[in-house]
Each structure stands twice: as C-alpha cells, then as structure tokens.
C-alpha cells in the first residue's frame, strides 16, 4: 500500500470519527441496525489494528479515541434508553449482519 493511500484512508477515518462525534443524536443501536457496526465496533477495530502492529491500546483508550471523550461521559451525555421498536429492529437486523 502506498503512503498516499494510507494518508487518504487515515483522513477518511478521521472524517468519519468527526462526523459521528457531531451526530451524537444517532444511537449505536441505530448504527448497528442499519450498518451492522457502531462506534464501539470502530473502537474494537482500532484496538485490533494496534495489536496487529504490536501496539497495546486498552478498550477505554480506544473508545475515547472514537468518541472524542471518555465513553462513560459520552453515555451520560448522549445515550438514550433503546425503545422497543429500536430493539426489535436491531434483533431483526442481526439476521442480516452476522
């Protein structure tokens, strides 16, 4: 992979994080239902990529990188209780997004 490709992918990832931080109204359950991944998935993938390169990053540190603040703080500020409709849609989506 070329340096420019890596730079472009990194820029796109940073923009995705910025977008998700601005869209705190979009709940993780909604992301999981529609896209099959959420902010926590991104944090897990970030940790996995670090581990593959011999860099140890904790779960909390990875989530803070994705959320832009400590996860507990984000949850307190933005996370809402999932509605029965959201839960039903999520469960149905699990069949599409294994």
From TrEMBL:
Keywords: Cell cycle, Cell division
Pfam families registered for this protein in UniProt: DUF1244
Top-rank taxon: Bacteria
Residue ranges constituting the SMc04008-like domain according to the UniProt record: 26-91
GO biological process: cell division
Official protein name in the record: Cell division protein DedD
Source organism (scientific name): Mizugakiibacter sediminis
Lineage of the species this protein comes from: Bacteria, Pseudomonadati, Pseudomonadota, Gammaproteobacteria, Lysobacterales
């Amino acid at each position: 992979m070329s340096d420019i490709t890596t730079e472009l992918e990194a820029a796109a990832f940073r923009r995705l994080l910025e977008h998700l931080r601005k869209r705190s109204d979009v709940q993780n359950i909604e992301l999981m239902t529609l896209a099959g991944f959420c902010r926590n998935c991104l944090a897990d993938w970030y940790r996995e990529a670090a581990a593959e390169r011999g860099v140890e990053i904790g779960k909390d540190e990875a989530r803070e990188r994705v959320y832009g603040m400590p996860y507990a703080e984000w949850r307190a500020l933005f996370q809402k209780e999932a509605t029965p409709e959201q839960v039903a849609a999520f469960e149905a989506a699990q069949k599409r997004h294994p």
